[in-house]
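job 3f2a | input accepted
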Amino acid sequence: MADRPHLAGPGEVSDDPLPSAYGTDWLVLMARDPTWAYAYWDISVARVNSAVGSLGGGKAFLRLIGLPDGLLLAEYEVSAQRGRYDFALPHSDRSYVAELALLHFGRKVILARSEVIYAPASAPAPGSPPTFVSRAQQRRALATRAGLDELPVLSPSEWTARLDVARSLFSPVTPLSIGSEARLSPFGSWSAAS
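job 3f2a | predicted structure (194 res):
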């Protein structure tokens, strides 16, 4: 594709700035929490120009649609090519989809449609009281998941020693010389091969 810049490959370094758009023709909708959603999109110039040409003009709108009934719940005028938008969801515990559409005199062209999202419930279901778990019950459940009879109880000095080992595993790696091999030791640290 002639209109896209060269992308640096593995091992290459580029001082080129990141593009402001990728022309991927997609719309992503995410439930931020039970009452808010976030959408972002990136539409190619060719796709927008094609839609404008077929309609003879138009404005872009981000449209929120409730499922399963397919009712239009909200509509916001936005930029067609790329953008982002935060908006309130009318109800929690529901499914939604978004579409980016170009509208002109009652006609529309859908530029992109998001995947279906589910906004989580904002409260426990009625009639199901919250379940509280004691520390002992939690330890038993974790031990069972780990395939142990019980979780070990560690003293503060044992926790410090294990934390020191964990820190050593994630310490900055010293670069190896070109042509050398690296091997993972049985204890999880990288070393140069002899």
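job 3f2a | The first strand starts at residue 26 and ends at 33.
job 3f2a | closed
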